[in-house]
Amino acid sequence: MAHIAYLPPDQALTSLRSSLQGLSSAEAARRRVEFGPNRVEAARRVSPWLSFLREFTHFFALILWLAAGLALMADYYQPGSGMRPLAFAILGVIAVNGVFSFWQSWRAERALAALRELLPQRVRRLRDGVEQTVEAAELVPGDIVMLGEGDKVPADCRILATDGIRINLATLTGEAQARSGLVEAVAEPDPLAARNLLLAGTLVVSGNATALVFATGMRTEFGRIAHLTQTAGEPESPLQREIRRVSRIVAVLAAALGVVFFVIGRAIGLPFWDTFMFAIGVIVANVPEGLLPTVTLSLAMATQRMARRNALVRHLPAVEALGSTTVICSDKTGTLTENRMSVRRWHVAPGVDAVPEALRAVAGLCHDLRFTAGDASGDPMELALWQFAGKPPASLRCGELPFDADRRRMSVMHAVDDAVHLRCKGAPESVIACCSTRWTPQGEAPLNHAERVELTRVQEAMAADGLRVIACAERRFAPGTAAHEGGLCLVGLIGLEDPPRADVAEAVSRCHIAGIRVIMVTGDHPSTALAIGREIGLVRGATPVVLRGESIRRMTPAQLQLALDAPEVICARVSAEQKMLVVQALQRKGEIVAVTGDGVNDAPALKTADIGIAMGRSGTDVAKEAADLVLLDDHFGSIVNAVEEGRAVFANIRKFLTYILTSNIPEVVPYLAFVLLRIPLPLTVIQILAVDLGTDLLPALALGAEPPRDDVMHQAPRRRGERLLNWPLLLRAYLWLGLIQAALAMTAFFVVLRHDGWRWGEVLGPQDPTYLAATTACLAAIVCAQVANLFVCRDPLEASWRLPLWSNRLLWAGLGCELLLLALIVYAPALQSLFGTAALPLGLWPWLALGAALLFALEEGRKAWMRHRQRGRSSPR
To answer: Domain Cation-transporting P-type ATPase N-terminal, which positions (predicted)?
Structure first.
């Protein structure tokens, strides 16, 4: 692509077999067939329907399908056993889980549509020597196009002629500073840096040009970035990996237990269908049917909390992924800074405290701003200078020497009375070299060597503070004299900055405390990035590592990984691919990477990262559609707030996972007792579903809504390999809380049986009042114990009474719904018929409450013992 930049305009035309009259209609039609339409093509993607079906065929779902199929088979061979309602209930669970999971994982791939929107719909071109206005999709290599102020470049083009054209490449490079275009050939291999090229998707800020199209559609630099965005793999979030792992472990355990106890039942002589129903019950009891919907709803509630803190979540698993972030690769402009330039310092001459009118005139009149209804828009730097000058009105120009990268300055001429005023601004070394005098309050004075040395010192001092230094000069010419940039009078120096956001330094400090590295990855100049980094506390040491984009491109993967080992790193002048290389290198190092971005150039890195964060105000549609999270206020501080919420999500999922898994043991033990002790089945399968998908659901969701602990940002990020379902959690849920609940449930079951005169070995029918009351007591004991479990699960170590009781209102709502649903199951006739329950005597409830209090006391005793052990290990010996 870049070779055309080396050629003069006439040779560029020859290389594409075109001319200044444009292509002929016949040749253009032939090329349209060969090169295709000028649009970004979509990559082949998995059908949404196929993605939807996959949610019903993963391992967790297959276990439930098996249980439902077995229940229907049991109902067919033994009608009236209650298996048909169970089968339909399990199918309902599969449907709910599948829809929730699909909604959670399916992302509308609209990044491509957003890319197309950035390309112009219509463009002016020459065809057979006649100017036409056509659809941009009709362009082919060799076409001649005419571009003016406000146009978006429709394809990659080589400038043939120009009148002061300036291009904003922010969507491709991330730099807000407009760049002037050249006609001459340049020896620049990088198309993004070649100033005689106009690239698709960029904006014409001012001036106009005639240009030769040399690349269209996916062959453009824009199309190449689109391809990177389409093909960049979306990594599975840590939470997705852990939920998949938990689901498989639990599903395998449930199926294995079902098979094992079916074999045991047959071995001890139980009837086939009784053993078959028993196996189904074991499977259903061990599969936490409410896990996936509870996880999804918990994440959805976290997104609402994040939205209130100006972080809009587009992809639910990103909530937790952000909480486990170890590195944030942050853009500079608009995220760490305010995305607006302002004049911070100026220098004219020693002892001058007021801004002279000559300096205001150069700052306010030497620009390419556009005016609408008296207001100005355009280059941020020129806008800042115009505001510094007091917002002078637009004036009539009589000439202009546009900004040029070789000259590094621009000049504007105005006719004033009987003279022509030339006003010049640019890089100090360029402008001062053209000056022979300097401004003083008494008039012009010669600019001697000592003063030039002093000006260099002042300029370096400003640059060391991260300011962009601009020199201003002027000269008057008599009418009829050719204006030129020589013998100018230096008016002064102006230092501008894009100031850091007010509280971004505090946010960066919170990241340091939380053990999160922040790496600035920007398209700006290294010295500017380094100065801002020091100002906000991102860089504290004397020797930070500054990686330039070109250096990153030349590094091997191993070299880049080693370079990123430095504690303080800044990446400057990076392209889209180089930013993605940094992200991938960090991920290979085992980091969980969050990336911010706002331009088209950021989209590949946003998709590659574990968590992509786009700017809501300044970001392009492409960046927003490629991201997982959109900042509504473009503020780095909102990222830190979102990290805090994300960390709470992982802890909360562990809390409700403990709560949900605890009830599995009192649901399984009745089936073991049924087989081994030859007693009536203490808990039916439909009653198990009443707990898993009924009474447990809202309390578990309340645990998922627990607010972040005060010290959550004082802890290091958890290790990448840390498991959601670990041994301490399993031991606490299954072998401690679960066994306590099972003992309470079986005690309640036997108490009711004995109270009603049941004797060991006596067979009870499924509708026997004594049997119904006993199973109801077993169910009620589990639910009452879960009430106490709700409070002890709020923290694995902290005493429950030390946690603020009203910080989570949903906790009390969940508790109320749990008890109300239990009362309806026990006393409402319709639900009694559905769940096989009977009304319990009121005198039994105090005993059930006492059992719940016992669980609370035992668990709080365990916590106190664990806290004592921790203090013993941490105290000095």
So the answer is: 3-76
